Amino acid sequence: MPRNEREGAADLTHVIAVARSIGTHINGFKIVIEKSTVPVGTGDLLARTISETMAVHGLSHDFEVCSNPEFLKEGSAIADFADAPRIVVGAGSDRVRQAMRDCYQPYLRDRDRLVFMDVRAAELTKYAANAMLATKISFINEVANLAERLGVDVEQVRTGIASDPRIGPHFIQPGAGYGGSCFPKDVRALVRAGRDAGYEPQLLAAVNDVNIRQQNTLFDKLHDAFAGDLAGRTFAVWGLAFKPNTDDMREAPSRRLLEALWEHGALVRAYDPEAMREVRRLYGYRADLELCESPESALECADALIVCTEWPCFAAADPSKLAEALAFPIVVDGRNMFDPAMMQQHKLLYYAAGRGSSVADSSQLKALTAAPAAHILAAE
Ligand SMILES: NC(=O)C1=CN([C@@H]2O[C@H](COP(=O)(O)OP(=O)(O)OC[C@H]3O[C@@H](n4cnc5c(N)ncnc54)[C@H](O)[C@@H]3O)[C@@H](O)[C@H]2O)C=CC1
Ligand SMILES: O=C(O)[C@H]1O[C@H](OP(=O)(O)OP(=O)(O)OC[C@H]2O[C@@H](n3ccc(=O)[nH]c3=O)[C@H](O)[C@@H]2O)[C@H](O)[C@@H](O)[C@@H]1O
Fold this sequence. Notes:
Elements: H1 13-25, E1 30-34, H2 42-56, E2 63-67, H3 77-82, E3 87-90, H4 94-104, E4 114-117, H5 119-150, H6 154-162, H7 183-196, H8 202-225, E5 234-238, H9 253-263, E6 267-271, H10 276-283, E7 289-291, H11 295-299, E8 304-307, H12 312-315, H13 319-325, E9 330-333, H14 340-345, E10 349-351, H15 362-370, H16 374-379
Parallel strand pairs: 1-2, 3-4, 5-6, 5-8, 6-7, 8-9, 9-10
């Protein structure tokens, strides 16, 4: 489901088009299954649209709408599907429930994973699941921002809370905020749905706001470290996709960073194992964007490095090589990939999410440049 950009609401154009198509071609009893993430009430809308279209074409067939939301993640779709913790089915009759059980039988051999409910509950279950996960991410990002200002390493805090089974280790990795085609649009759509129903969903609105602010932290830290003096500088960017193992750039935190850097007259040298073709499609050829062949080549002539995506190939980076290659010893890490102590050992100013140097401060850079380091002097 694309979203309606103007209001944050889900855009049902394609779903209605499909319902009309079904109403035109239906030739006997059918079960119509919603797989897309659609607002509560879409099942009813589908049923109405199919009935009205059948009437226009002089058709009269029995059908039922069922909601069977998808919970897979990009990059692990097959494993998530085959080993789903639960299969949610919203259905209004035993006939549909049995048909869905038959359909999923190959995946139910070890245990029954079907969770039956009504159609509207299944529609909301999908949104609630994504909103809960997005809430966990915005929550830990809030804690990371507090940790930064209180001189605490959020990674220690994360480990401390993750061991409580009521909290758990999943979806509490702080970073540059969540992106992708689902969390941002689904949280916004749920906020919209609440407002349409006369209820202000304060928590969900805050989850979205915190995420937008978090996506901006990469640029903000860089901006502060260089005291706003970004024009004409060159920055290496490692990772562009919204997460590893995909080339998807939808709502990727890297996009906010790139666009803000360009707005401030900076040049970008970027590397991503998968997403560079997509970046080219989005931004075209431009003088302030160089797509590089390797992480190392992105560092050439760069003033500082920003990590946007935690591709495993970046984890092996040698801090001494980073310190050597960068004109200024600044690494802004949006995915907490490196050990702050190790970075410090190599005199790198390391700004991660809730760890390393505290909130970026240009005085730190001045202090460091006052104590001469060969590469900085060379750059000046
Ligand atoms: N991306 C994911 O990992 C997951 C997505 N979903 C949900 O699945 C739905 C699709 O998401 P994505 O796959 O990310 O979207 P997408 O935008 O990548 O893919 C949508 C596809 O539908 C095609 N399409 C659009 N209108 C059409 C029409 N009228 N007839 C036939 N094809 C049409 C598009 O060309 C495109 O290939 C959304 O509701 C999303 O929330 C649910 C779980 C996981
Ligand atoms: O509805 C959907 O389409 C899907 O949305 C997400 O899947 P996906 O968007 O593919 O990606 P995730 O792995 O969930 O990551 C989403 C974003 O959150 C970020 N994230 C994730 C986990 C975490 O701890 N911290 C964090 O910042 C990732 O970097 C990424 O930008 C859900 O995880 C799926 O269950 C759901 O089916």
